[in-house]
Amino acid sequence: MTTTKQPLTLTLGDQLRIFGRSGLEQAAWNYPRLQNLGFCYIMIPAIQRLYADQTAQAAAATRHLTSFNTMPYMQSLITGVTLSLEEQRANGHPVSDDEINAVKVGMMGSLAGVADPVWWGTWRPILSAFAASLALSGLGILGPIVFFVGWNVVRLGFRWWAQRWGYRRGVQIVEDLSRGILQKLTLGASIVGMFIMGALVPRWTRISLKPVLVTAHHATYDLQALLDQLLPGLLPLGLTLGCVWLLRRHVKPFWLLLGILGLSILGYWGGLFK
């Protein structure tokens, strides 16, 4: 009578413990190998589940002490794929150390490039603008609460989904990402982010002119009212485009802010701004 060896698999509890550790990835950030200690710490529950021998556990931990660095939110996807590879290796599949490290290195750079326009260029401006509008409308503390809850719900939800997706798909996810998904996602996020920032320009940038025009027939026209009727938001748009032009010519943001402050004070004293 022969017995069939049950394949080694990670339980849902193992993946939950790994997910709980993922938020501490940068707690041991270091200059020589960046996030390697944090990634190894994340992998410990999987190593303990898949390898019973202490020598094999030590070898697996050493395998994940190589240099590693990516955007922390995208790390969960890499973790999921790495979990799948470790599981295959523990079950006797020919998966070498170099192959595991090559997958990690290949994914960490491309995913980090996608994360910036998606998280910092799109989701954060949208959520912060909405939260700021709540605060300015008189709801006070509700604005920061909405930002804190909204950001973390999306962040944690995405990280859990990414870890599970990477674990289920394994190395096949590399083929999925190589079909132009990353480029399309980056382009789409950049367009949405620029659209949102453009919509916020007339809302949060306020310039009000003080001069009043007087005609020969003694009729008076408020210059600001005329501009609002002809081209609403023209002055905020011009100021924003001017700042972008200066930034592209390597003017430091500090000097830009100082210049805007000085221009505002002089304009008010000179009767140009209200």
Automatic annotation (TrEMBL):
The UniProt entry's GO CC annotations, sorted and at most eight, read: plasma membrane
Q: How does it sit in the membrane?
A: Multi-pass membrane protein
* Residues forming coiled coils: none
Q: Which residues cross the membrane?
A: 126-154, 185-205, 225-247, 254-271
Question: What InterPro entries has UniProt attached to this entry?
Answer: GatZ_KbaZ_carbometab (IPR050303), PTS_IID_man (IPR004704)
Location within or outside the cell: Cell membrane
Major subcellular location class? membrane
Give UniProt keywords alphabetically: Cell membrane, Membrane, Phosphotransferase system, Sugar transport, Transmembrane, Transmembrane helix, Transport
Q: Which PROSITE patterns match?
A: PTS_EIID
One GO biological process term: phosphoenolpyruvate-dependent sugar phosphotransferase system
Q: Which NCBIfam families match?
A: EIID-AGA
PANTHER family given in the database record: N-ACETYLGALACTOSAMINE PERMEASE II COMPONENT-RELATED, N-ACETYLGALACTOSAMINE PERMEASE IID COMPONENT-RELATED
Q: What is this protein called?
A: PTS system, mannose-specific IID component
> Which organism encodes this protein?
Levilactobacillus zymae
